[in-house]
Amino acid sequence: MSANREEIHANLIDEPDDDCSSPEVRYSVLQNPDKRSKQFCQDPFKVATACLTAFCLVLLTILLLTNVHRDKARSSDQDSPFSAAVSHMQKSCANVTALTEELQAVKREKSELEKERMQLKKTIAELEATPAPQTTPVPMKNPCPEDWRHFNDSCYYVSEYGRSWSDSQEYCQREGGHLAIILTAEEQTFIWNLLPRGYWKSYWFGISDEKVEDEWYWVDGTKLVQSFWEEGEPNNHGNEDCGYIVKTNVLSRVATKSWYDAPCVMSLPWICEKLQSS
Question: Which residues does the UniProt record annotate as the domain C-type lectin (predicted)?
Answer without folding.
Answer: 151-273
